[in-house]
Every structure is written in C-alpha cells, then in structure tokens.
Amino acid sequence: MRQIWITKAGPPEVLQVRDAPDPEPKSGEVRIRVEASGVNFADILGRLGLYPDLPPIPVVPGYEVSGRIDAVGAGVDASWIGRDAFALTRFGGYADAVCVPQGQVFERPTGMSALDAAAIPVNYFTAWQLVVIMGGLKRNETVLIHSVGGGVGIAATQIAKHLGAHVIGTASVAKHAEMRALGVDHLIDYRTEDFETRAREITNNRGVELILDAVGGESWKKGYRILAPTGRLGMFGISAAASGKERSMFGMLTVLAGTPWLQFNPISLMNANKGVFGVNLGHM
To answer: What CA–CA distance (Å, rounded) separates 6 from 235?
Structure first.
C-alpha cells in the first residue's frame, strides 16, 4: 500500500509518499481499503509541528477515512467484510489501507459516496459535540460560528438551523453567497469587520448564547465579552497560530499573549453566568 508521511515539520513539501506492507487487523479491529481520506486542520497543524497530540515525526497523519472493509481481526464478526464504511482513525488515515478499532467504524448508508462519508467523522462529530452536547443550543438562541465556511462551520450551521437557532458566521466575503444559501442569517467579513462590534449590532447589544471558536488568542477574549447571560464559549482549535505554510514562533507567541489566561476563572464565571468549554474529538 501507499502512505503519505510527514517527514519533518515544515511546509507541504515535507510530505512524502512511501510504500509499505498492508497492515493486518489486530483483535477487535477491521481493515479498511481506503477510497477517500479526510483532510483537516489538525493535519496541517501536525505538519507544522504545532499539534500536541501528533505522534513523533515521521508519522502518517489522517483522522478519518471511508472505503470498504476487506479483513477483520479476532473477535469481530466476519459479516463486516465487504461492507462500505467510514471511520475515525486517529492518525494513519493518509493510506491505501488502515486498521481501525471496530467501535470507531460506521457502516456507510446506501447512496452516500466515499467522498461525502470521509467528511463526516471529524467535522460532524465535533460540531455535534460543540452545538448539542456541550453547547446546549436551543430554538431561537443565537450562535456565532467562526470560520463558518470550513468543515466544522458548515456542519455546525446545518445542525443549528435544524434546531431552529439563529446563526451569525464569520468568513471571507468570497464565501458569503454560499453560506447564505446554507442558511447563515448574518455574515461578517473577518478581514474588514470587527466581529465583536458587528455581533453587538446584530443582536442589539444583547450578545449571543453560543460561540464556536477555533481561532484562539484575542478572538477568545472578544468572544467572551459578547456572550449573553447564560452564554457559552466553545473552543476547539487555535488556527491563529498557523497563519502560513511554515511554523512561526512569532505567531504562536502572539496567540499565547492574546489568550485570556486570567479572564476565565470560577468566580468570574459564576458572577457572569457564562460558560467556557473546550472540545478535542481525539480525546473522547
């Protein structure tokens, strides 16, 4: 089989295609012959050397795949062989074949393409955890979704609209038309507008009940300030630390300097009636 390896921290050129023997499933695992692999921001952070969960480099990245199961390990029903499936891989997904614990594998619905299925696990599970499980979003509440045109942003928008909530999204203006068609109620061009000011204008200074923020740093500070009473800030990344093709210590230091280290403490949270939570699907 072929695999894509991160050979060292750096720009896309550090990725290499290498051949390797097909893996054999261990007890409780299935082997998936991969048709499509998801590409996520965590993979980019890993390539840059900024993702703390990444195994030691060199490593094969990849958090999600779809394809057909062609072998199973001990303890797994042989009827899984031949089924179309998608799975969470927690690294190793950039490959022609990958072995995955059965509990992380889901049968692909009839009519769903391999490409569509490969986009589900990380994006939609993360969005569901943020919006429903920990965010507790309800009908007629307002959610502010940063990077609304990204994978998690699109999934979160679809879930929020299904719940009957109002959606404010930040995205570059080139994505606004498509995001409006998806159902985003108000769009903010983060390149030319201050989202804190615009969110206050949109909500008549009330603020929002839920914020989904993978930007980090100063963005978390601003977000916390515009939470309405009972508001929740969901943090699931720090994209501000990776603004280019290579690792930038200046970018990381800027994010760390802008992080509200002293703002989120139990006393202030109780007195403000606000909540802050974090989501990392890989640790669930």
So the answer is: 26
- Identify whether the C-beta of residue 259 lies closer than 8 Å to the C-beta of residue 216: yes
DSSP-H helix ranges across the chain = 41-48, 114-118, 121-128, 151-163, 176-182, 195-202, 218-225, 249-258, 266-272
If you average pLDDT over every residue of the chain, what do you get?
92
Residue 231 · residue 270 · CB < 8 Å: no
The fraction of the chain above a pLDDT of 70, given in percent, is: 93
Whole-angstrom distance, CA of residue 233 vs CA of residue 235 = 6
SS3 content of the chain, % helix, strand, coil (to 5): 35, 25, 40
Residue where the block lists tokens 């893996």: 23
Spatial distance between the Cα atoms of 42 and 242, rounded to a whole number of angstroms: 11
For residues 187 and 145, give the distance between their C-alpha atoms in angstroms, rounded to a whole number: 10
58 pLDDT exceeds 70?
yes
**pLDDT attached to residue 239:** 75
Min mean pLDDT across 157-161, 226-230, 276-280 is at: 276-280
Phi then psi for residue 99, to 5 deg, are -100, 135
| Closest by CA position to 118, among listed 46, 63, 45, 61 | 63
Q: pTM of the entire structure?
A: 0.88
Is pLDDT of 247 > 90? no
